[in-house]
Specification:
Layout lengths: L1 E2 L5 E3 L16 E2 L1 H19 L9 E5 L4 E5 L9 E2 L7 H8 L8 H4 L8 H11 L3 H7 L2 E5 H9 L9 E3 H4 L14 H7 L8 E3 L2 E6 L11 E7 H8 L8 E5 L3 E8 L10 E6 L7 E8 L3 H9 L9 H6 L9 E3 L17 E3 L7 H27 L6 E4 L6 H11 L3 E4 L4 H13 L6 H7 L2 E5 L7 H14 L5 E2 L4 E2 L1
Parallel strand pairs: 4-11, 8-9, 12-18, 18-19
Antiparallel strand pairs: 1-2, 3-6, 5-7, 10-11, 12-13, 13-15, 14-15, 16-17, 19-20, 21-22
């Protein structure tokens, strides 16, 4: 996506890439396909906007966090597919780490519970299971990055001097970076058997990391100057710069972030403590985050696995064919449950089925699952932070679904606000890059760009936040203890 100084999109292009499921619980991406698609959409967006590379002030990168990749710095080739954040193959590693100190063993230093979600254990798995990688890591040839580091390395030259860097937000999702020092922690790296030298240099979210190369997709040198994990990028794109401001992004998963300022707030209710952003030489800003694994991905599953719909937008029309969910609840614990439960033994369930239920009820229950899970996270956030949110800013691909957004307002009991630019993840990456080169000179300039496009107010007569939510909570308990985690297989 390309943005002008008012934060208005002037050109965009997008392409899907392959989702790879080698076996139950495993989710992979092809890094070479991602790089190829990236080059295609860069050229496509520039063509659609009818601009030349010389018109671009700076480039920002944002990415699905935690997705883990190890590649050869001399050949530029990955040693294996990237292990996606949803992947659960590191379950045994997580259980071994938790035998001393439990799930919260490292939470104080890294802000994270022990979970298959994060990058560090995925690196350990690759080092232990992919032939030759550990030896190459010791030699200094095998290097790690999340997808942001992979793209920046390729954009800035790859094997010919590419910059091996990441930013504080992505580093905070590895379980390897100390929240206070913002540096890789040698003790946890040693415990996981990860050579520190294979990790990228940690930089701020807004500074010039390097420049694109003449033979790259842009065709000339442009500063690569912004890097934010996707949810932090959306927080910046929503201009949630003050403590107490929050946003929720509806994508493959669902992620709510609450700005807690320059203070590290440790969660007591199942949330993650993470970096929100750090601009240049300023102090780091922290956040509380509630992470939900499956939201938009559930719609994809209904499309791709069950063939219930032909395209994702059809889910709303199908759900509108019925008045309610028909008494069913769909808990999509495909990869266990993230916040606030952190249960890797959970698996998906549809409960309350009767002969009355049809495909419309299934579609509606799938959408409602996103809203119910968001309510659980908001309750935890209010309890941890002491803030009582009066409204919720929303963004991401699912916010075009009016039925879902109205139900979300009903379940939360507060207004839900969609901005004029719903793809705030891309906008946040642009803000970070533009700030580094003084395209935008202050956060106040960015704030002036934010405008509400639509607001949904809760229905005063709804039972969504009381009776329906209570039944959802009951349904969630039916997913517990399904996977036999001690033996690493399903019951």
């Amino acid at each position: 996506m390309l943005f002008d100084s008012h934060g208005v999109p002037v050109g965009s292009h997008q392409l899907e890439h392959t989702q790879i499921y080698p076996q139950a619980g495993w989710v992979e991406h092809d890094p070479m396909e991602i790089w190829a698609r990236t080059k295609e959409v860069i050229r496509g967006a520039m063509q659609r906007a009818a601009i030349a590379a010389g018109d671009i002030a700076a480039i920002g990168v944002t990415n699905q966090r935690e997705t883990t990749l190890v590649w050869d710095r001399e050949t530029g080739k990955p040693y294996c597919n990237a292990i996606v954040w949803q992947d659960t193959r590191t379950g045994e590693i997580i259980r071994d780490l938790g035998r001393e100190g439990g799930q919260d063993r490292f939470r104080k230093k890294f802000g994270l519970p022990l979970a298959t979600y994060f990058s560090g254990p995925k690196i350990q798995w690759i080092l232990e299971n992919v032939d030759g990688v550990r030896e190459k890591a010791v030699e200094g040839r095998a290097i790690f990055g999340n997808i942001d580091a992979w793209l920046i390395w390729n954009l800035t030259g790859g094997v010919d001097g590419g910059k091996h860097v990441t930013d504080v937000t992505n580093a905070s999702r590895t379980m390897l970076m100390d929240l206070e020092t913002l540096a890789w922690d040698p003790d946890i790296c040693s415990l996981m058997g990860i050579p520190v030298d294979m990790l990228p240099e940690i930089r701020t979210s807004s500074e010039i990391y390097g420049h694109t190369v003449a033979d790259g997709p842009f065709g000339e040198e442009i500063p690569v100057a912004g890097d934010l994990g996707d949810q932090q990028a959306a927080t910046v794109g929503q201009t949630c710069f003050d403590p107490g401001e929050a946003k929720n992004t509806y994508g493959t998963g669902c992620f709510m972030l609450l700005n807690t300022g320059n203070h590290i707030v440790q969660s007591k209710h199942g949330l993650i403590t993470t970096l929100c952003y750090q601009f240049g030489g300023a102090e780091p800003v922290y956040a509380l985050e509630g992470s939900i694994a499956i939201t938009g991905a559930l719609v994809q599953w209904l499309r791709d696995n069950l063939k219930l719909i032909d395209s994702a937008p059809e889910i709303e029309d199908l759900a509108r064919t019925v008045e309610d969910n028909g008494g069913i609840y769909f808990v999509p614990a495909f990869s266990g449950l993230f916040a606030p439960y952190w249960r890797d033994d959970a698996r998906g369930a549809i409960v309350g089925l009767t002969r009355h239920v049809n495909r419309g009820h299934l579609a509606r229950a799938a959408l409602e699952a996103t809203a119910f899970q968001t309510r659980e996270v908001l309750d935890a956030m209010n309890a941890d932070s002491g803030f009582e949110l009066k409204s919720l800013k929303v963004d991401g691909g699912m916010v075009g679904n009016d039925l879902l957004m109205q139900f979300q307002a009903d379940v939360l009991g507060v207004p839900v606000i969609r901005p004029t630019v719903p793809e705030t993840t891309a906008l946040g990456a642009a803000y970070a890059a533009g700030y580094a080169v003084e395209f935008w000179r202050s956060q106040d300039e960015m704030r002036l760009n934010w405008r509400a496009e639509k607001t949904w107010h809760p229905d005063p007569d709804t039972t969504a936040k009381t009776e329906l939510y209570a039944k959802w909570k009951k349904a969630v308990t039916r997913t517990f203890d399904w996977a036999d985690v001690e033996r690493g297989r399903e019951c």
